[in-house]
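Dear Dr. L.,

I hope this message finds you well. Following up on our conversation about the binding site, I have prepared a predicted three-dimensional model of the protein together with adenosine-5'-triphosphate. For your records, I am including the exact sequence and ligand specification that went into the calculation, followed by the structure tokens. Please feel free to forward this to your student if that is useful.
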Amino acid sequence: MAALETGSRDVRHGEARENATGFVGALLPVRSASKDKLMKRKIACDQEEKFSLVRRMMLRPRTGKKAQSTMAVRTRSQRSSRATVLKSDETSSDLKEDLDKEQLYEPKVGDIVLFPGKWPGEHRVGVVENVTSRETAARSIVDIQPLQRLGQTSTYVEGAKRKAVWMESGDVISCNDAEYDEKNKVWHLPALPSLMADDQNRQLSLVERNQGLQEYERLKRWLIQGTVATSALGTAYYAVRNGVVETIAFAAGSLAGVLYLTLLQRSVDRIRPAALSPEQPIATTASDEDGERQHIAPVFPVARYALPFLLILGLFSIREFVDSARQRLDDRDTSAAASVERSGSSEALLKRQVRFARNLPDLSRVPPPVEAIVVTGPSGVGKSTLIARLLAEFPTHLGYSVSTTTRAPRSGEIDGISYHFVSKEKFLADVEAGKFIEYASVYGNYYGTTFDCRPGCDPGVASPDMPSDQSLDAFFIWIAPPSLHELERRLRERETESPTELARRLAAARQEMQRADRSPNFDIRIVNEDFEVAYGKLRRVVLALLHGQR
Ligand SMILES: Nc1ncnc2c1ncn2[C@@H]1O[C@H](COP(=O)(O)OP(=O)(O)OP(=O)(O)O)[C@@H](O)[C@H]1O
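The resulting structure of the complex is given below.
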């Protein structure tokens, strides 16, 4: 053992260092080497030593007591054996002999192997798909396709998701006993190679894992409780501040959120380590949950990824539903208002007024910017129809000013409802007294609109044919027909005018429309082609005016 003797001599001369990296360093021919060369060789030997250790770690225990130890235990035992070698000045041939006793496992494509899972202490079974050896490293890279255990059986199948993992060859253990069933395309593993750590290590990893799981359970509870509490508060707030529909929409959204969170947690629960119970051996690769996962695998990922989109879609649908419900309620209230107007039911009227009052301003606090809203337009354009709808919708906020005329009442016309029928003298006296919003002389008779309105609230809606030039703090709206032809059709269909009267009204309408086009007195012009569209525009304007915006 010349080399060893050299080392021994160095030790004697005090030239060898304590940190000469063990017995391999002691094999260096120190005397004949320069300092640089010495360092290079030392590094080479360091690597060589590491390599030998790596090789020893990769050795798979086959028989005897050692076969029961884990890889971790083997690493420790390697260290202690190395110390023993140093102490006892064992020779390199002794080491080789020691190494030769063990066999180095080199995975091959198609081998069934046991490899570490992502959880501490977890091990899984897989089939080797590829082995890539590396020139610069002792270990090769092994691509492994994980297998799934079927329930508690010793049968393994390929997972639904084919996703290979890679390991270093030293980290995998061969499962020699695996048998492939060609017909059913499954592997039978009568016994897994045991990887049990010593009891102390095992207990430690279990304690750590249980602590982690407890924290996770706490976090889960906290998340769900927090979301439920926030949802309940939000729903209560909506119930107090907004209507039923908004509250239902918010509650539905919250419920969907909680449901999604629960599903997400269930999904996370399913990727727990295979062996959770302390009684269950850590080396078990898969459990019942894996089998269960296999069944739900194709369904659950789809649901998981589709759920956020479904939620968004659902929220949009709820919004649509809320809008349409609101519209339906509005329509119902409007028609209810009209029927209540007719039937005169004070209870229904009160209910309707309360409902509308929620969205309408308190006029004592928000004074409207105008004293009157004047709706003007040619005869037959639809003024009365539009105003009737407005009055039905805002009965407490709008009143209607009945026009005053000096013409004689026609059959069926009632004084005070159709018109205020007054004498020419009285009319002119009221004009002098400034009682009229507007007045005009038409075909020898006076027509005018006063500030008095029914049922006596402010602002009123007046329906004069044309606004007068007198100064009035009113908002003037011009309602135009889509065409003269359509105007004539409406008047004819109304059947309230004689042919002569109809012709006269149409001629007057032509002139009024020309004057209205040039008149600077109108604040807004609305074409009444589609009734709902025209009413929608009118309604928005009136609401803005009621809320103090001009
Ligand atoms: N957008 C519309 N499309 C079709 N018909 C309409 C429309 N608006 C109103 N009408 C109809 O036109 C006719 C005339 O309407 P309305 O009596 O309200 O007009 P008016 O302007 O008040 O007339 P007048 O000034 O002579 O009282 C009614 O039969 C009404 O139902």
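In brief: The CA atoms of residues 376 and 464 lie 5 Å apart.

With kind regards,
A. P.
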